[in-house]
Design goal:
The protein has about 270 residues and is mainly α. The protein has 8 helices and 2 strands, in the order H-H-H-H-H-E-E-H-H-H. It folds into 2 domains: about 110 residues, no CATH class; about 140 residues, no CATH class.
Length: about 270
């Protein structure tokens, strides 16, 4: 119950935002989410010795591509990404003499800039596509459905470990259940929300997105193992942090965006 009620509230609020909310509200929520995710990342993966103002500055640098994507679309996102990397470089150069492990700090923060700023920006870019909000619902249903399907199917039928050294509880049987749940929910929401769908494209995309989401999940597990962190944060009661909830969609979002751009959603 500790996990179920907050999870339902989060899912319901996200669904209402996508179906009924204007872009301005969605954009504000994504900026807030990116900011919290940036703070979690800096706390989890940042190096010791950074003061509060320094951490705040780095978080702002991380979020800049998301802000630029909302204001100017794809070209803005890429410009914001370069601007963020340039500012991060200036920050490292300015603090070089005070930071014994400058390369490690630079590397970890450069990864955070990509992980937070670049990946989250694609959720904003998807909204800007035709029927973008509806595609975000479909994407969310795939990642949430696959996560739940894998969890319950893995508990009942799980025998063969997927990546025991990274995530001991994940099983191949759970992955199969996740694919089935993700594809089912994708078809359900697409049939309700999208005006025209190539069903072969949708099913293949859903299967791929489940796989991409699993890669995102495992990638965050590698980060947490490497930093000795159990959860990225504690802001979501019973669900850890923002990054714990977004690890799949962080990877699946860009994948769907480029699929839609290259294939035209067909």
């Amino acid at each position: 119950m500790e996990r179920t009620l907050p999870g339902l509230a989060l899912a319901g609020g996200w669904l209402l935002l996508l179906l009924l909310g204007p872009f301005s509200l969605f954009f504000a929520v994504i900026i807030l989410v990116a900011s919290i995710g940036a703070m979690e990342y800096v706390k989890m993966c940042g190096c010791d010795g950074q003061g509060f103002l320094q951490r705040l500055l780095i978080c702002g640098i991380f979020v800049l591509p998301v802000l630029a994507a909302g204001l100017w679309g794809g070209p803005g996102m890429h410009t914001g990404l370069f601007a963020s990397f340039f500012l991060l470089s200036v920050y490292i150069l300015y603090n070089f003499q005070f930071t014994p492990n400058s390369f490690e700090v630079f590397s970890r923060n450069a990864l955070g800039l990509f992980y937070i700023g670049f990946l989250i920006s694609h959720l904003v870019l998807i909204w800007k596509l035709p029927e973008g909000a509806s595609w975000l619902v479909v994407l969310s249903s795939i990642t949430a459905g696959s996560d739940s399907g894998a969890y319950y199917c893995g508990r009942v039928f799980g025998r063969t470990k997927l990546c025991p050294n990274i995530s001991p509880k994940k099983t191949i049987e759970g992955v199969v259940g996740g694919v089935a749940a993700g594809v089912t929910l994708a078809v359900f929401f697409a049939s309700i929300l999208l005006t025209s769908v190539n069903w072969l494209f949708l099913v293949l995309a859903a299967v791929l997105l489940v796989g991409v989401g699993i890669v995102g999940d495992l990638t965050e597990s590698v980060m947490k193992r490497g930093t000795g962190t159990k959860d990225s944060g504690s802001i979501l009661a019973g669900h850890g942090g923002i990054l714990d909830r977004m690890d799949s969609i962080l990877f699946a979002g860009p994948f769907l965006y480029y699929l839609l751009v290259l294939a035209g959603g067909q």
